[in-house]
Specification:
- This is beta-lactamase.
- It is an enzyme of class 3 (hydrolase).
- It comes from Cnuella takakiae.
- InterPro entries: Beta-lactam/transpept-like, Beta-lactam_cat, Beta-lactam_class-A.
- The chain is α+β, with helices and mostly antiparallel strands.
- The protein has nine helices and ten strands.
- It has one domain: Beta-lactamase.
- Helices cover 36% and strands 19% of the residues.
- The strands form three sheets. A five-stranded antiparallel β-sheet has the order 2-1-10-9-8, sandwiched between helices. The chain has a three-stranded antiparallel β-sheet with strand order 3-7-6. A two-stranded antiparallel sheet has the order 4-5.
- Helix 2 crosses helix 4.
- The longest helix is centred in the last third of the chain and has 17 residues.
């Protein structure tokens, strides 16, 4: 615990950290029950909402959808490059949301999940009232002004990921579908960059100007552990590799890997040129 406190000391913003050894059940936390913005991490609850609808027969995993460019979220998303009227499977839209954090895909899936209100009700029923969708959710406009797209506590978001991993929320097939996508995170330059490529990693990150956060479940050769680091009110709002919150995230990830595995692995010298 003292190492985590020391690591967070002097951070220019608000920070919350939750760590759990999945084999012993031991946890370490720092402001783990404080509310933080999710940014794109809200896409995990959205994905659970979609899989819940599939499980109830209201949607089909491979059903064909027709893209309507009125849902376009301006940016560099892959789905946003589709032409109006093009066909795409629901499974591919879900994959894009989780692996490349495609915002156009995410807005579409939020609509299909039954709005943010339905996802919030589902999170409540699953035991995660701290996890909320704010954007495009009636009655949550004021909260959205504070937290953005969604809100979470580090403990709750990490626990949601753990429950997916343990197949305790959805069917085994649905859980496996989500885990395969969460195991292919394109945005691997921060926490994931400090963990060997042979480890199994299930993760999602989120970033806006004043908030950078990440939730990661790691299965190494000798260990299984989980952590979530969340930040808000960040003074450093830069988008370079040296951003204070991202540097802290990499240090935490490296420290945890060394603690749980102690195999001496370090990122290759010069690896940052690829990140």
């Amino acid at each position: 615990m003292h190492k985590i406190v020391a690591l967070a000391q002097g951070f220019n913003g608000s920070i919350g950290i939750y760590v759990k050894d999945l084999r012993s059940g031991k946890t370490v936390s720092l402001n783990a029950d404080t509310i933080f913005p999710t940014a794109s991490i809200v896409k995990i609850p959205l994905a659970v909402g979609i899989m819940d609808k599939i499980g109830k027969g209201e949607l089909s995993y491979h059903q064909e959808l027709v893209y309507n460019d009125t849902i376009l979220y301006p940016g560099v998303d892959i789905l946003g490059s589709y032409k109006n009227g093009e066909k795409v499977e629901l499974s591919k839209v879900l994959m894009l949301m989780l692996t490349t954090s495609d915002n156009t895909a995410s807005l579409w899936l939020q609509q299909m999940a039954g709005t943010g209100t339905r996802v919030n009700t589902l999170m409540d029923s699953l035991g995660f009232p701290e996890l909320k969708v704010n954007s495009r959710t009636p009655g949550r406009e004021a909260t959205r002004a504070v937290y953005g797209w969604g809100q979470m506590t580090p403990r709750a978001m990490a626990s949601l990921l753990e429950n997916i991993y343990r197949r305790q929320l959805l069917s085994q097939a649905a859980s496996d579908r989500l885990l395969r996508s969460l195991n292919r995170n394109y945005w691997d330059g921060e926490a994931l960059s400090q963990i060997p490529p042979y480890a199994a990693l299930f993760s999602k990150n989120g970033a806006v100007d004043a908030s950078r956060s990440e939730v990661v479940l790691v299965r190494g050769r000798k260990s299984e552990y989980l952590f979530c680091i969340a930040t808000k009110n960040n003074k450093d709002q830069s988008w370079e590799r040296g951003n204070e919150a991202w540097v802290l995230t990499r240090k935490l990830s490296a420290m945890l890997w060394d603690h749980f595995e102690r195999d001496g692995w370090k990122p290759a010298v010069g690896a940052e040129m690829y990140e």
